[in-house]
């Protein structure tokens, strides 16, 4: 068994296990064929040139904004700008990743019982919504592991012909997916970029050192467990628009970026993925899926998640944006709560 007090509690002998800790799931399993078919659906569009917006429709816009955004706009008498909205989002979201969920659930239940004794409907409603949020977070993030989804992400990222790749992560936040890629492609050099400083100083800095990423041992070709401090990572705090890299990356990655830009800006965002890519390099993108359960999630978690403009889209819509911006779609699919694309420039 592993010792959770150890700095690196998991090693090669734990490959295949999953374990729930108070904040997140540890998942060192690979997908069985049955699970693969349930959680991963790859390459459903045979020919991207045959798709049209008329056929696929446009994304769904999430319009329930957080209380913080509404209060800020009322106070400042203007629409909240994207940079400010990200600073609010990152703080609110990070607070959920560091919750001890079972303990918080107990507290929330006690709070609810207390609120009942107050006979004040507003207090009772508030306590109930706290319970609903915690239950949903517990299910989506901790039980289902839908947000990090290491098995789905590995299915999307696997099989690229790359040795010691240079990886650029645009809008990196806590940097999870670049670390998963780094574990899968040994010797990777990772550059993370986010213009919200809090992402570097807190979200990434506090990402658990003990979290095990499943990757490959280049010497043996078998699985190995990799930790954050074993990866080669540089974190830049800046606007993507200010980067002065050349075409020097094998992978340019974004996770949850494209859907935050209305259509008139999407070609620019697509271009961010092309500008720094070597010839033959891969642009990898994921965005949240347009499905009923995601709509419910963004409604219940509005105060945590909805400071920014946000769309939910299908993988066909996502692929068409990138195809129309001059990318070939090599792999596309659905994982648990996200769509994923692996593309190359045409
Ligand atoms: C939705 S988050 C990515 C999702 C992430 N996996 C998470 O857990 O929050 C998008 C990130 O992109 C960053 N971002 C947005 N526009 C940017 C820009 N122009 N330059 C740099 N970072 C940007 C935001 O600060 C935010 O941290």
UniProtKB/TrEMBL annotation:
InterPro entries: SAM-dependent_MTases_sf (IPR029063). GO terms for molecular function: methyltransferase activity. Keywords: Methyltransferase, Transferase. It holds the Pfam family Methyltransf_23. One of its GO terms (biological process) is methylation. SUPFAM superfamilies: S-adenosyl-L-methionine-dependent methyltransferases (SSF53335). This is Class I SAM-dependent methyltransferase. It comes from Halobacillus litoralis.
């Amino acid at each position: 068994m592993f010792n959770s007090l150890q700095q690196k509690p998991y090693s090669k002998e734990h490959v295949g296990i999953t374990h729930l800790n108070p904040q997140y799931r540890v998942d060192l399993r690979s997908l069985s064929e049955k699970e693969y078919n349930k959680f991963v659906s790859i390459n459903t569009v045979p020919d991207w040139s045959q798709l049209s917006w008329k056929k696929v429709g446009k994304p769904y816009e999430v319009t329930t904004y957080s209380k913080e955004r509404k209060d800020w706009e009322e106070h400042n008498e203007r629409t909240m700008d994207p940079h400010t909205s990200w600073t609010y989002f990152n703080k609110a979201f990070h607070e959920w990743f560091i919750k001890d969920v079972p303990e918080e659930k107990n507290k929330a239940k006690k709070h609810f019982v207390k609120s009942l004794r107050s006979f004040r409907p507003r207090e009772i409603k508030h306590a109930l919504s706290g319970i609903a949020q915690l239950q949903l977070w517990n299910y989506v993030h901790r039980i289902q592991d839908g947000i990090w989804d290491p098995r789905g992400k590995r299915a999307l990222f696997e099989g690229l012909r790359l040795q010691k790749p240079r990886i650029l992560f645009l809008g990196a936040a806590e940097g999870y997916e670049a670390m998963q890629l780094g574990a899968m492609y040994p010797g990777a050099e990772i550059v993370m970029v986010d213009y919200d400083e809090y992402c570097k100083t807190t979200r990434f800095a506090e990402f658990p050192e003990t979290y095990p990423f499943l990757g490959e041992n280049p010497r043996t070709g078998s699985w190995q467990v990799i930790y954050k401090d074993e990866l080669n990572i540089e974190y830049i705090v800046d606007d993507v628009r200010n980067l002065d890299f050349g075409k020097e990356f094998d992978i340019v990655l974004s996770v949850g970026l494209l859907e935050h830009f209305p259509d008139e800006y999407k070609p620019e965002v697509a271009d961010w993925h092309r500008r720094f890519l070597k010839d033959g390099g891969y642009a990898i993108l994921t965005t949240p899926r347009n499905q009923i359960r995601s709509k419910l999630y963004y409604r219940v978690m509005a105060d945590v998640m909805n400071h920014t403009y946000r769309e939910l889209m299908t993988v066909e819509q996502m692929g068409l944006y990138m195809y129309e911006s001059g990318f070939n779609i090599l792999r596309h699919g659905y994982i648990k709560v996200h769509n994923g694309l692996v593309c190359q420039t045409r």
